[in-house]
Predict the structure.
Amino acid sequence: MNETRKRTSADRAAKRGGSAGKATAGKGAAAKTASKYARGTRSYTMSRIRGRDTSIECLVRRYLFSRGLRFRKNDRRYPGHPDVVLPKWRTIVFVNGCFWHMHEGCPKYSIPKSNVEFWTAKLLRNHDRDQRQHAELEASGWHVIVVWECELAKSVRQARLERLYDEIVGDGS
């Protein structure tokens, strides 16, 4: 009989060619990892993080499309490859993850406790780049809107999406 069972982390790691357990001693010395992940797993996990078509981007685009707005997505002609470009309204929307784009005051944003120098420098570069790109777009006559990941939590999502629509088309108020 062919039983089906839930895949374990060991099954997934074996499929990728890694190991699922903790690091083992190597060549007589105790080899320890600073990570809770097995060797190779961290790289795999980080490789799954995408720069476009994220779940929050898709959510925003579905909403805008359902309201009748037509747009370009991830248009490489503009600085920052905006997530949504609405030429008719000269509006550009960036859907930012709170961690990656340093959303100040947000609980989802904090510098990791390990490798602090690396993460601080990286996140500051991201933040500075965002500021430069937004300024460049605004100088070119575009209206730039940033939607943060935390603003799309289920409890506040609908209100934020409606406010976004109003910011784009203008509700006269």
Observations:
- Residues 116-139 form the longest helix (24 residues).
- The chain is about 35% helix and 10% strand.
- The helical segments are 9-16, 41-47, 55-66, 116-139, 157-169.
